[in-house]
């Protein structure tokens, strides 16, 4: 099975997840540009980009599993790393900013 033979039951949800992931990434970037101070700016990329990356990875899991005709779950490790590292990084940046502001 190649990309041309992908079932619409897999292709449509994957396409929707990719579009949603792209929109969430764009929303995170716009929030980073538009918000006024550091504490407000840190939330937009952390939340929106984490969700956007999660949508892209779920779409990749769907398509890879359909092409391989078996469950492909090694991308779950990538998802866990992204979901865990982004909020932790934001928390450490906020703590450093609070410490610096004192």
Number of strands: 0
Number of domains: 1
Helix content range of the residues, please?
Answer: over 70%
**What is the overall silhouette?**
elongated
Distance between the termini: 59 Å
Number of helices: 4
Low-confidence stretches at least 5 residues in length (pLDDT < 50)? none
Radius of gyration: 17 Å
Largest sheet: none
Order of helices and strands: HHHH
Look at the structure and give the mean pLDDT.
87
What percentage of amino acids are in beta strands?
Answer: under 5%
Class computed from helices, strands and strand pairing: mainly alpha
In short:
With 102 residues, the protein is mostly helical. It has 4 helices and no strands. It has one domain (8-101).
What does the model show?
- The chain is mostly helical.
- It has helices at residues 8-34, 38-41, 43-68, 75-101.
- Helix 1 packs antiparallel against helix 3 (43-68) and helix 3 (43-68) packs antiparallel against helix 4.
- The radius of gyration is 17 Å and the shape is elongated.
Note the main attributes of this structure.
mainly alpha; 4 helices; sodium:proton antiporter activity; 102 residues; single chain
Describe how the helices and strands are arranged.
Elements: H1 8-34, H2 38-41, H3 43-68, H4 75-101
Helix pairs in contact: 1-3, 3-4
